[in-house]
Structures are given as structure tokens and as C-alpha cells.
Amino acid sequence: MSPRQSFGRLWRRHPTLIIGGLLLLLMGLAAVAAPVLGTIDPQTIAPFDRLRPPDGQFWFGGDLIGRDVYSRTVYGARISLAVGLGVALFSIILGLAVGLLSGFVRLIDQILMRVMDGIMAIPSILLAVALIALTGASLTNVIIAITVAEVPRVARLARSVVLSLKEQPFLEAAVTAGTPFLAILWRHVLPNMLAPLLVQGTYIFASAVLTEAILSFIGAGTPPAIPSWGNIIAEGRTVFHIAPHLVLLPGLALSITVLAVNLVGDGLRDHLDPRFVSRL
After folding, report:
1. Pfam families, from UniProt (predicted)?
2. Which of 120, 146, 212, 216 is the least buried, fewest Cβ under 10 Å from its Cβ?
3. CATH number (domain holding residue 134)
4. Burial 230-262 (b: 16+ CB within 10 A, else e)
5. Residue 118 lies in a domain
6. How many folded domains does the chain comprise?
7. pTM as predicted
8. Please, are residues 116 and 156 in contact by the beta-carbon 8 Å criterion?
9. Maximum alpha-carbon separation in the chain
10. Tens-place pLDDT, residues 226-242
11. Taking Cα atoms as reference points, which of 249, 212, 262 lies closest to residue 23?
């Protein structure tokens, strides 16, 4: 089958995966190429360009102190994607470790799960605000704070998969045959956890992007000197009635990114679900 035929088949089966992937790829390229795409330094202050409407030089207009909103929006993509990717990776790694321990070591299962339940009982935004208030506002601390709130969800998912796999005949046969635990983990457990963890990771990615924007909007996220979609929107909300583009255009970039990640997640879920594939 030629690449064109493979792409056509994938498009017919999972168009949301293709659309979401392309949108996310464009956002990623924009973030990487921010120094090239950003026509003006996002920190350059030009008082005479204060609240400048969009034009050929300031594509998204100027903010309250004359900074180029377009350049700040492009650089803000770096923050949002870095937070989303970092939180997704760390949450999966830590949650997988906790879920495996809880699923295989029954002695500490109840302790770990009660700790996870306690963390999940606290709203993620409040937990993140509290942690950032203790550690200080920075990109690293934002990633850590959001990760702490997301780990229990991955841990519970990993634990449920482990408990279901322990009842499967192929795993019981491997244990009976004396297969080393690490080999069982690598050959039988982790491959069966890949699909649900990938899908969960995309949802965590989208949730982290939104949470970072909310934290920056309320002043508890990245420092104001670092361009972030949340603090760009926060700065523009006070003049929304006379300069709505300061909120709408960065908000559109945020919405497109979250939509793209959710589309990728839905596409992966359909593509990796054998029940869905068998119907095609």
C-alpha cells in the first residue's frame, strides 16, 4: 500500500486524528519558530503604540504599554505547549509508577490510593494555586503544581489496568512459568497499558494548557515578564470594551490548541480501541 493510500485510509477512518494532528503540528512549529515569526521583540515597550489596532505592522495590535500582541501570542505558544507536554509526561511517569505499585503490591495499595483520593478531593486549580504560593511563580513550579493534581488520575487508570490484567490467563501462565517480574512487566503489562495512557496523556495535555492559562490569568502562573496566553488575556480584559482583539486573538490561539489536542485524543482513542476498529 502506497503512502497516499495509507493516508487516505487513515483519513476515512479517523479524520479527527488527522485534523487535530495538523493543527497541533502548526502550533508546535509556531512555538519553535517564534523568534522568526515574531516580527517585534515581545518585551519592547512603545508608549506611542499603546492600544494600537491591528494593522500591517502590529498584526494583533498593541497592548496597554505598546507591546506587540502578535509576537507575545506566538511566544506564548512556547509556554503553553511546554507546560502541556511537561505535565503530560511527568504525570504519566509518576502515575504509572504509583499505579503499578498499587496494583501489584497489595500491602501498600490502600495507603497509596487513599493518598491519591485525598489529592483528587482538592480542586486542581486550588491545589495548584496553593503550591505556587508556597514555591513562587515560575514555569518549573507551574509544571510541578499541575502535575501533582494530575498524577492521581493516571495512577487510578494504571491500577485498574493492572488489576484487570492480573486476571488474564496469559499473565497467570507467565507467572506460573517462572518468568521474572521485570520481564512480565515489559512484555505483558506495559504494552497493554500503552493505549489508555496515550489517550489519557492527551487529555492531561489539554487540561494543563487550560490550567496554566487560568493560573496566569489570575496572576498565580508564570511571571508577567514571560508572555503567556493567560496573562495576555488578563492584561487585555480591562480594556475589552475598546480593544476586544487583545482578548479574542490570544483566546483564539488557546482555543485552537486545546481543540487540536482533544481531537488527537479522540482520534487515538478510536484508532486504538479494538472494538471501534472491528466495526470499520
Report:
1. BPD_transp_1
2. 120
3. 1.10.3720.10
4. bbbbbbbeeeeeebebbbebbbebbeebbebbb
5. yes
6. 1
7. 0.87
8. yes
9. 77
10. 888 988 998 888 888 88
11. 262
